[in-house]
Write a structure and sequence with these properties.
mainly alpha
Length: 103
């Protein structure tokens, strides 16, 4: 039976759907923000421990390096090939290495 309405749910009160959608989006944003913060803290702690052990550079704060790494690795989603991803990871890891002693 054809009613002349488009397929899908009938929305008799669009403000409810909009309000609920915004609420769900806000909650999802909170979860994503918390996950990003936990990831950043995790990476920061790994870098701090490795720097303390002498395996990574200690001349830059671990939190700063974690931010650089996460931003750089986010760029991996924009490259066109696996080789480019591998180069990006290699460059990022090289940047974490202990700096050469001054001449």
């Amino acid at each position: 039976m054809r009613t002349g309405r488009p397929p899908g749910p009938v929305i008799d009160r669009p403000e409810r759907v909009t309000s609920g959608t915004i609420h769900v989006a806000d909650r999802r944003g909170e979860h994503v923000d918390r996950a990003r913060q936990r990831l950043r803290e995790f990476v920061e702690n790994l870098i701090a421990e490795a720097a303390q052990d002498g395996d990574l550079r200690d001349d830059v704060a671990a939190g700063e390096l974690a931010g650089y790494c996460l931003h750089a690795l986010t760029a991996a989603g924009t490259v066109d090939s696996h080789d480019a991803v591998h180069r990006l990871v290699a460059v990022t890891l090289t940047g974490l290495g202990t700096p050469a002693p001054p001449p």
